[in-house]
Specification:
Elements: H1 3-6, E1 10-12, E2 15-18, H2 25-31, H3 35-39, H4 48-64, E3 67-74, E4 81-88, E5 96-103, H5 112-128, E6 135-141, H6 145-153, E7 157-162, E8 172-178
Parallel strand pairs: 5-6
Antiparallel strand pairs: 1-2, 2-3, 3-4, 4-5, 6-8, 7-8
Length: 179
């Protein structure tokens, strides 16, 4: 794992994507109280202990090189995180990786999610394409029209409809972006 990927801090206009910090615990708890964030999450955060565990898991993911999660800060709105974007590899050197994101309710509809996802996708291409990464995938439940719009704005084409599979009770969409 190279230090560039482990310590990455990205920017795109007013957005700054930075590693999550212990001081972000309150923002994380507030975000996970939102039913929309809960519905799209594989790792719900219900209390301070779970939030602290989530923050440690992001740090461990960076250290292992298998998960790169970034707090999304819009400097026009303040210094605190307003969302999350993440890149997850199923194993080292995999040809595909999954991206995911969420934003807090007050900032939805401002274009933050697609801009953050675009910044993450560009960084993933620059950082990992030379190591064999050729495709990024975004998965969401079929009834999440907002995620379809975010995917399309960030250059992810709808590739297929997926059958329901735990932990998702409904069909899903797989969007892909070639690098």
């Amino acid at each position: 794992m190279n230090a560039h990927a482990r310590d990455a801090r990205l920017s795109s206009g007013s957005l700054v994507l930075r590693p999550w910090r212990p001081g972000d615990l309150g923002v994380l708890l507030d975000a996970y109280r939102d039913p929309a964030v809960q519905a799209g999450s594989r790792a719900p955060v219900a209390d301070e202990e779970a939030a602290a565990h989530w923050l440690r898991a992001q740090e461990e993911g960076r250290a292992s090189g298998l998960r790169h999660s970034f707090a999304v800060v819009d400097t026009e709105l303040g210094a605190g995180p307003v969302g999350n974007v993440a890149l997850s590899f199923p194993e080292p050197g995999a040809p595909s990786a999954e991206v995911g994101y969420w934003t807090v309710a007050p900032v939805r509809g401002r274009g933050i999610a697609p801009r953050a996802l675009e910044a993450l996708s560009g960084w993933a291409s620059e950082t990992f394409a030379g190591a064999g990464l050729v495709r990024l995938e975004l998965l969401h439940q079929v009834d999440n029209a907002a995620s379809c719009r975010v995917a399309e704005k960030a250059g992810y084409a709808l590739a297929e409809v997926l059958p329901p599979a735990p932990p998702w009770p409904r069909e899903g969409h797989r969007h892909t972006r070639a690098l």
